[in-house]
Specification:
single chain; about 60 residues; mainly alpha; elongated
């Protein structure tokens, strides 16, 4: 998600998206262990999105 999209969200929507991305990161870890993951840049992108969301949750 882009920062412009994230800033438009309400606090409840931020929390929902934060939970969603944390679950995605958890699933990415399992797919990496099993050898099913082909796009390793998804880790970095997901972690950055989680950081952006958590920062804006703290601000609001």
């Amino acid at each position: 998600m882009k920062i412009k999209e994230i800033r438009k969200l309400t606090k409840d929507q931020l929390n929902e998206n934060l939970d969603k991305f944390k679950k995605d990161l958890f699933n990415l870890r399992f797919r990496k262990i099993n050898g099913q993951l082909t796009n390793f840049s998804k880790f970095k992108e997901t972690k950055r999105t989680i950081a952006r969301l958590s920062t804006l949750v703290k601000r609001k």
